Amino acid sequence: MPTPGRRRAVQARSRDTVERILAAATALLAERGPDLVTMSEIARRAGVSLASLYQYFPDKRGVMAALFERHTDEVRAMLAGSLADAGSLDELLGRLSALARGYFEQHREDAAVRGLWAAVQSDPALQALDAADSLRDARILYAAARPFYGAVDETRLLAACALSMQLCAAAARFALAIPPDLAAAAPDVYAEMTVGYLKRLKDEG
User: CA torsion sign, 134 to 140 to 144 to 149?
Assistant: First the structure.
């Protein structure tokens, strides 16, 4: 789905232009963070005119939204691929824990991802995209987990899946702001908290 307010790139040349714009914005996010990135700098780095940039994106928020949607599409594909065909709840939760640890590592190692999340957290419109994305991811987890949960209330299970998704991103960001020894322990602690609750929820059913 195209970002609202963004021109759809149909022709190959247009798609190439959009790719250059998004690559430039990604590099600038990694180098400078979202607050210091401007549309003029994006256009200059991408090698396009400012007028051309505005043909595809109405403002910097539009660029950030496109980058966020690309990021979340990649994460969703990994989530769906990893959770597919799990043979037991323990196997499913083990895969979920591994994904969470990988997400913490991505935040720690990838400056562009950190910059993108900083942009999301400072913009209510982008926060709304984040909430919608967490619900989409939650439904993927829910669909994979539901066969193992018997009579457990569906709403409660979906809420647990949604919070697991949203809190993973929040915890990964928080780990960047705490002392190194706590940050190193955070991925395992988060995974144990999530898995522990999801196991207890099954027992309740």
Answer: positive
